[in-house]
Amino acid sequence: MRAFPDLPPIWWLGSIxxxxxxxxxxxxxxxxxxxxxxxxxxxxxxxLGLVVWSAWYFFARKTTIEPHNTPKTLIVEGPFQWSxxxxxxxxxxxxxxxxxxxxxxxxxxxxxxLWLVLDRRFAAPEEALLRQTFGPAADAYCARVRRWI
Length: 149
Description:
Layout: H1 8-25, H2 34-60, H3 86-102, H4 105-134, H5 136-144
Helix pairs in contact: 1-3, 1-4, 2-3, 3-4, 4-5
């Protein structure tokens, strides 16, 4: 039997499931605020756009998008010129959007927990692999561009 895949979208789905479960268990703790709903849609659209924009660079450069695999090229354009991890940033934004849309304060805490998991479990090891694979070019990139924003 294969081990459960340790991938960022799985962790993201876990955060969304936890928010939904908490809303189901304690619906009274999730106020319905119209402007928060509207803001959640803006964050959602921004996050989805960021995922598509970022993923396009992986496919255009013919390098792996999957964590734990060695990349074939160092992507420094597009959203990667502002964040070394725009897709992970988008996953956190999606969690924030869902938390706002459901009125869940716990969801904001879970978004912070997701950020921590993505940072420690994925971003830091990937960054080490970039440095190992691309040497001084990766060092210069990491010095110039923040890990998140």
